[in-house]
Amino acid sequence: MKVVAAPAPFKGALGPAAAAAAMAAGARAAGADVREVPMADGGEGTLDALVTAPAGRMVRAAARDPLGRPLQAAYGLLPDGTAVVELATASGFERLSDAERDPEATSTAGTGDLIRAALDGGCRRIVLGVGGSATTDGGLGIVVALGARALDAAGEELPGTGGTLAAVRRVDLSGLDPRLGTVPVEVACDVANPFAGPDGAARVFAPQKGADAQAVERLDSGLMNLAAVLVHQGCPDIVRMPRAGAAGGAAGGLAAMIGARLVDGGAVVARAVGLADALADADLCLTGEGRLDGQTRAGKAPAVVAAACAQAGVPCVGLFGGVDLSPAEARAMGFAQVRPIASASRPHAAALAATAEDLEATTAEVVSLRASS
After folding, report:
1. Domain check: are 209 and 100 in the same one?
2. Crossing angle between the packed helical segments 213-232 and 250-258, to the nearest 10 degrees
3. Least crowded by CB within 10 Å, which of 57, 135, 140, 234?
4. Residue 151 backbone phi and psi in degrees, to 5
5. Dist CA 139 CA 210 (whole Å)
6. What value does the mean pLDDT of the chain take?
7. Residue 270 lies in a domain
C-alpha cells in the first residue's frame, strides 16, 4: 500500500514535519510505503513546510515581538529566491504571556522587520504566512516598520498598534521601502474573513487575543477608520474583501498599502510541496491537525488535502487531536473517515505530550485495517 502522510501542525505539540514523521512511522510499521508531505495553510507551520519542501534554508534576523521587545527570529529562503516569512515568528500569539495579550497594545512591526531583512537578503518574491497573530493592527505596524508613517489629525506620528487605528487620519506611504515596488508579496491566508464588520478581524478573532467586548468594538471601529482613510487616499476598499481579515487585518492592510496579493494559504503550500504529484499513485492519504471543527472547513490545511484527494480519487483519512464535527459533516468535506488519536477523557497536557506516540499508533491501526479490507 502506498500512503501519503500530509498533516498540518498539531498546535502546541508537533509541527507539520514532525507530525508527518509520526504518521510515516506508524504506516511503515503496518507495512506501507510512505511519502511524507508536511502541510500548512498560511498559519503555524507554513514556514517549516515551505522551506522543507524545496530544500530551502532558514536565515536568522533581528526583529521585535508584538510589544516591541527585541528578539532573534528567522525567515526562509528558497532556491528560487522566494523568501518565506511567517508572521507568528515575530508577531505571534505565542510570543506573549497570558497577562501580556492585548491586541490594542500589540503591533506587527516585527514582521515588517523580517520582511526588510528578506529584502536586504536579495529575495525576489515574498510569501507571508499570516496565521497565529497576537495583533489587530490592520498591518499598520508592518508598513510603519517598512518606512510608512501613520499620522493623526495634528500630523503627529502614531506607532501603528491596534489601539491607535481610530486616530489615524493619513498614512504617508511615500517613504515605503522602494524594493516593495519590484518584489511581489503574496499573503498566504488561513481564513476567508473580511477586514472589518460583523465577521471581520476584530469581532471574530480579537477576543481570542485578549480583547474584551469594549476593546473589540474599539478595534473594529479602528479598522473601519483605517480602511476609510486608505480609500480616501486612493487605495482599494478592503472592508469586505475576502481574506482581508487574516492576522488582525494585516492581510487587508497589505493588500491596500503595498499591493500584496491575498491567496489561499493551503493552496499555496499544496503546490509548493507537490501534493498533487504525491497523490498520483497513492492508495491512501492521511492528514490531520489538533482539532477538526468548523474552522477546518474554512480553508484549513486538512480540508485542502481532503479536496485534493477527492479530485485524485484517493481515500483521505483524517486523524485529529479532537473531533467536533459529525461523520456526515466530515464526509461532506471529502474525508472517508475521521478519528481522534486519543481518548477525550485524557487531560489536555498529557494528550499534548503523547501526540507523536498516539498519532503513530492510530496511523498503524488505520493502515492495517485499510490494507486488510
Report:
1. yes
2. 10
3. 234
4. -120, 140
5. 18
6. 95
7. no
Its domain, for residue 135, covers: 46-265
All three cell numbers of 284: 491512501
Say how far apart CA 259 and CA 249 lie, in whole Å: 14
Q: How does pLDDT run across 146-157, given as a tens digit for each residue? A: 999 999 999 999
Percent of the chain with pLDDT over 90: 87
For residue 364, what is the domain's CATH number?
3.40.50.10350
> For 29-38, 41-50, 277-286, which range has the lowest pLDDT when averaged over its residues?
41-50
User: Using one digit for the tens of pLDDT, what is the confidence trace for 244-276?
Assistant: 999 999 999 999 999 999 999 998 899 888 999
Q: How many CB atoms lie within 10 A of CB 28?
A: 17
Q: What is the rounded distance in angstroms from the CA atom of residue 184 to the CA atom of residue 274?
A: 22
Answer with the one of 247, 265, 283 that is the final residue of a domain. 265
Q: What is the C-alpha to C-alpha distance for residues 48 and 340, in angstroms, rounded to an integer?
A: 24
CA distance 147 to 13: 37
pLDDT for residue 99 is more than 90: yes
Orientation angle between helical segments 16-29 and 355-372, nearest 10 degrees: 40
- Which whole-number Å values give the CA distances from 117 to 173, 206, 364, in the listed order? 19, 28, 43
Q: How many residues does the chain have?
A: 373
Buried b (16+ CB within 10 A) or exposed e, 337-349: ebbbbbeeeeeee
- How many structural domains compose the chain? 2
What is the CATH number for 92? Answer: 3.90.1510.10
